[in-house]
Design brief:
Belongs to the autoinducer-2 exporter (AI-2E) (TC 2.A.86) family. Helices cover 79% and strands 1% of the residues. Among the domains are: 66-143 and 301-335, no CATH class; 144-168 and 175-284, Up-down Bundle (de novo design (two linked rop proteins)), CATH 1.20.1440. The radius of gyration is 38 Å and the shape is elongated. It contains 20 helices and 2 strands. The longest helix is centred in the C-terminal third of the chain and has 40 residues, at 353-392.
Length: 519
């Protein structure tokens, strides 16, 4: 039918046809209303997604743990499903009950008992730590008679480098008393301490020459401070001030402070058996008041945190119980509707089904590698180590079981970070060498070695994370997600690796397709 408009008809007749084999630069574009509809839909999805994230972020930990437990107990669930004649709800209920009895309840009892033992240990920390420190000093030869005098000398040396003060204060009687006199008196007291310790403290090296040099340097410095104080008094009375004189006094103060501090340090090092031995003895003999204050502060800071875990009215307990309820419910529904949920998510996701299947397989593989292998290995190491702790005579074996199992999940540190200090405690503090040696042999030969056997048996040669990435992922996971980060961290790294592999595969596919078209 001819076009009604003659002009349009002539344009159509005269319009040049597109050359064969060439693409049209501007193919038919969607309408503006269609574009606006898609944009508004994306904004709506983004807004609702943010709200959904805020609603569900509080349930991340129980849902994540429920997914892990479902993956781990899936073979058991399939076996129960077969035994119950394919009744899904009954088999899911029985599997959930099994998870509750085998995993959740024992873990809760373990944490509760370990917390109680830790609270008791904190309450006994002050006296036991003092006794332990005394025994350690005796075993290592770090006893220091008259430790308080050496600490006073050490503090005096530290204060010698402080710049000489220039402020004077007037007393009620009209006298002018400066800090120079106070520092000179401290130096006199330091000289008296050196004389006393040189005569009263026996040592392999008498250090007579060093003591004489230190005393002479102290006296010279103290006399210089008194002369500077007298000069300032004269300037105050006459009302004349000489800036050059004050500058010379300040330079002389710094020079004498360095010489005196070096002389005192030199005598202390020779008297106490060397530089390293001197520092070790000072560190191993802290002030009793400061040590008691440190222990008391640590106990007051840590004890309430663990007492709240065993308090029925604590908010943490309420949150934990609520999370456990969500976890149990999620396990039940994941077992019943898990495949349907996965199918729905795959249908709604714009990602290719092959990639989604790859991610699901990676989640299954990583869950077994990280959770089943690592947790099973950690539990076995904790049980084996606890047997050694019990034979060695430790009282808080449940606490040690919990700590050993927890540290066994951390790469590089492992169970050795618990049984090694326990063996050292037996050898140095309690002076029981045979149990200490046996515990060390048991820990090195059995506890820490069983990790390789279990992981090889469970993983069957499947690849694991590089040890460096495993350590960093655990540390970063704990800092971001809390304790659950021990499991989440490695899985995040594995998922990132999987996504990068998918992206690399997609880019290679596009490159191959473009090359085939060009050819």
């Amino acid at each position: 039918m001819p076009d009604g408009n003659p002009v349009v008809g002539r344009m159509k007749e005269t319009a040049p046809a597109a050359p064969a084999g060439k693409q049209i630069l501007f193919p038919q574009l969607p309408s503006l209303s269609r574009i606006m509809s898609v944009v508004m839909l994306m904004f709506g999805i983004l807004a609702v997604g943010v709200l959904f994230y805020q609603l569900m972020i509080g349930f991340f930990v129980p849902l994540f743990l429920a997914a892990l437990l479902v993956v781990i107990f899936r073979p058991v669930h399939l076996w129960i499903l077969k035994r119950t004649g394919g009744r899904g709800r009954l088999s899911a209920a029985l599997t959930t009950l099994l998870v509750l009895l085998v995993v959740l309840m024992p873990l809760g009892m373990l944490v509760s008992i370990a917390t109680t033992q830790f609270t008791v240990l904190l309450s006994q920390m002050n006296g036991s730590m003092s006794v332990a420190l005394d025994r350690v000093r005796s075993q290592l030869g770090l006893d220091l008679p008259h430790a308080e005098h050496f600490r006073q000398l050490d503090r005096t040396v530290d204060l010698l480098g402080v710049a000489e003060p220039v402020i004077t204060t007037a007393t009620a009687t009209g006298e002018v008393r400066t800090d120079l006199i106070a520092k000179a008196k401290q130096l006199d007291q330091a000289a008296s301490i050196i004389v006393y310790l040189q005569e009263d403290l026996p040592s392999a090296d008498t250090a007579v020459e060093e003591a004489e040099n230190a005393i002479a340097s102290i006296e010279r410095f103290a006399n210089g401070l008194r002369e500077a104080d007298q000069m300032r008094r004269d300037e105050t009375e006459s009302g004349t001030f000489n800036p050059l004189t004050r500058l010379n006094v300040s330079e002389q103060f710094e020079k004498e402070a360095v010489f005196t501090a070096a002389a005192i340090r030199n005598w202390m090092n020779r008297k106490l058996g060397g530089t390293l031995q001197s520092q070790l003895k000072l560190l191993a003999n802290p002030d009793e008041t400061d040590f008691a204050r440190l222990i008391r502060g640590a106990r007051e800071s840590l004890q309430p945190r663990f007492v709240r875990l065993t308090s029925a009215t604590g908010s943490i307990v309420a949150q934990t119980l609520f999370g456990l309820v969500i976890l149990v419910i999620a396990v039940y529904f994941f077992l019943i509707d898990g495949p349907a949920m996965i199918t729905t998510l795959m249908r709604l996701s714009p990602m290719d089904d092959a990639y989604e299947h790859q991610l699901l397989m990676e989640f299954d593989r990583t869950s077994r590698a990280v959770v089943l292998a690592s947790v099973l290995s950690a539990v076995v190491q904790g049980i084996l180590a606890t047997i050694g702790f019990w034979i060695a005579g430790f009282d808080q074996i449940i606490l040690l079981l919990f700590l050993t199992s927890l540290m066994a999940l951390v790469p590089f540190l492992g169970a050795a970070s618990v049984w090694v200090p326990c063996a050292l405690w037996l050898a140095i503090v309690e002076q029981r060498m045979i149990p200490a040696v046996l515990l060390a042999i048991w820990g090195a030969a059995v506890v820490s070695s069983i990790d390789n056997v279990i992981k090889v048996f469970v993983l069957h040669g499947r690849s694991q994370l590089h040890p460096l990435f495993a350590l960093l992922s655990v540390i970063g996971g704990v800092s971001v997600f809390g304790p659950i980060g021990i499991l989440v961290g490695p899985m995040v790294v594995v998922f990132l690796q999987t996504l990068l592999e998918i992206l690399n595969h997609e880019l290679k596919s596009e490159t191959s397709a473009s090359k085939s078209k060009d050819s």
